[in-house]
Amino acid sequence: MFQGPYAPAILRVQISFPQAYPTAPPLVTLSTDIFHPLVTPLTTYTYTTGSASGETVSATDEERLPPGGFSLRHGFPQWFARTRRSTPAAPNSQPEASGAVGPAGGASIHPPPVAKILKYIQASFSDEAILDSVTVESAANPGAYHAWRSYRETQFTGGLQPMTKSSAAPATRSRHPGEWNWEGVWEERVKKGINNSISDGVVYGAGVEGDDVVRFAQVDRDILDKAKARILKQA
C-alpha cells in the first residue's frame, strides 16, 4: 500500500475461483495477518457470510470464510442474494469455498471484471471512505469494524453516527462488541500488522510458503539498475 491508513503494508493476496463461478464469487484470502473490517482473523475463526453477530460459529457452518478470508459482501452484494431452500442439502454435499449463494430464482449474473475486484480490494485498504461505508453486516471482522469506527470518531465530530453504548449494562449480561471500549485498538493492531508485513523475514520469504507466485529478493542498487536496463532494452 502506497497511501491510506494501511500504508506502507505489503499484503499477499490469493484469489481462487470455485466451480460455480460466476454464480458464486471468487474466494479472496490474505496470508498477511492484518486487522481489517473485511478480513477474517488468521488466528481465530469468527465469521460467516450470513452472520453479523461476530460470535464464534461451528465448523459445520455452510457459509463461512476461512481465516484470512476477505469479504466481498460489501463491495459486490449481488453475489450474496439468497435463494429460499425448500429442501435441506444432501448430507454428503460440500459447500462452495466462498460460501456464496446465487441470486434469487437461480438467474445468472454478470460478474464484475477481476480487475474491478482487485481495485476494490486495494481501495478498501487505501481509501478511508470505503472503510467508513462498511456495515457491521458485511464486516468479516466485527472487532476491526468497531475499532475503526471508534478511531474515526476521535478524528471527526460528525460524518459518522456514534456507536450505541450502554451506560448501565447489567453485570450479569455479557456486552456486545459495540459496547466495548475500542479506544486505541485500531491504531495498535494495524501498526503491528503493518510492521510485521514489511519485516525482512516476511518480505523476503522466511516463514512464507514456498508456492507463492510473487517473491521479493534483496539486491543492491547496481544489480537492480542492470536488471532494469535489460528489461527496457527488450521492451
Automatic annotation (TrEMBL):
It comes from the Eukaryota. Residues 4-40 form the UBC core domain. Transmembrane segments: none annotated. InterPro entries: UBC, UBQ-conjugating_enzyme/RWD. Residues 84-106 are annotated as: Disordered. This is Ubiquitin-conjugating enzyme E2. It comes from Macrophomina phaseolina (strain MS6) (Charcoal rot fungus).
